[in-house]
Design a protein that fits this description.
Layout lengths: L9 H23 L8 H6 L3 H25 L1 H14 L4 H27 L1 H11 L8 H21 L3 H22 L3
Helix pairs in contact: 1-5, 3-4, 3-7, 3-8, 4-8, 5-6, 5-8, 6-7, 7-8
């Protein structure tokens, strides 16, 4: 892309992609007779504790943000990955980062945890999540390994809470903070 070329319409692409991913989650859950919001029919019957679920998601998300921040600031591989991801992301406003985080948090958790995990199990759903984050560039491959670890953690959070609230909060929080930091601190001017 030349310096004068317009930036790709990332927001419209994200709305379309994540809308389709959420629709796929709904379709898979419907076809399998699963309650998309809950880990199982038993968990749906038990209901949720929204305050506890939001707090658990925020705590887990905060821990992931701290770990990724340490990796980025203290290792050469972390800084290289941050610069590579930021080059793809480009400069984004705080509101754009929040929108992208909300879209990805809801749609990805609905698909990978809500629809796939009850069918495939924790490890297989986490592996598919990691593969969905596999980029064709070698400098982005560490992102795939981070996605595998995050997927396992989010899957465990889903199993522990019995619903998608905690993993959605964690995923959206991680993406909101990290997208903003990448855009602000690492994206080319």
């Amino acid at each position: 892309m030349s310096q004068n070329a317009p930036a790709p319409p990332i927001l419209s692409l994200a709305v379309t992609f994540y809308g389709l991913l959420f629709a796929a989650a709904l379709l898979v859950a419907w076809a399998a007779g699963l309650p998309l919001l809950f880990a199982s029919p038993e968990a749906a019957h038990e209901g949720m504790d929204p305050l506890l679920d939001v707090a658990a998601g925020a705590l887990f998300g905060g821990a992931m943000i701290a770990l990724s921040g340490l990796w980025t600031r203290r290792t050469a591989s972390g800084e290289r990955l941050a610069r590579a991801l930021a080059a793809v992301l480009g400069r984004r406003s705080a509101s754009e980062c929040l929108l992208l985080a909300a879209l990805s948090g809801v749609a990805e958790e609905a698909f990978f945890r809500g629809a796939l995990q009850p069918l495939l199990g924790l490890c297989a759903a986490s592996a598919v999540f990691a593969l969905a984050h596999l980029a064709p560039r070698r400098d982005l491959w560490p992102w795939t390994f981070f996605a595998l670890a995050a997927g396992l953690g989010l899957g465990l959070l889903f199993e522990w809470s019995g619903n998608l609230v905690a993993p959605v909060v964690a995923h959206a929080l991680v993406n909101a903070v990290n997208l903003r930091l990448l855009s602000r601190d690492y994206a080319p001017a």
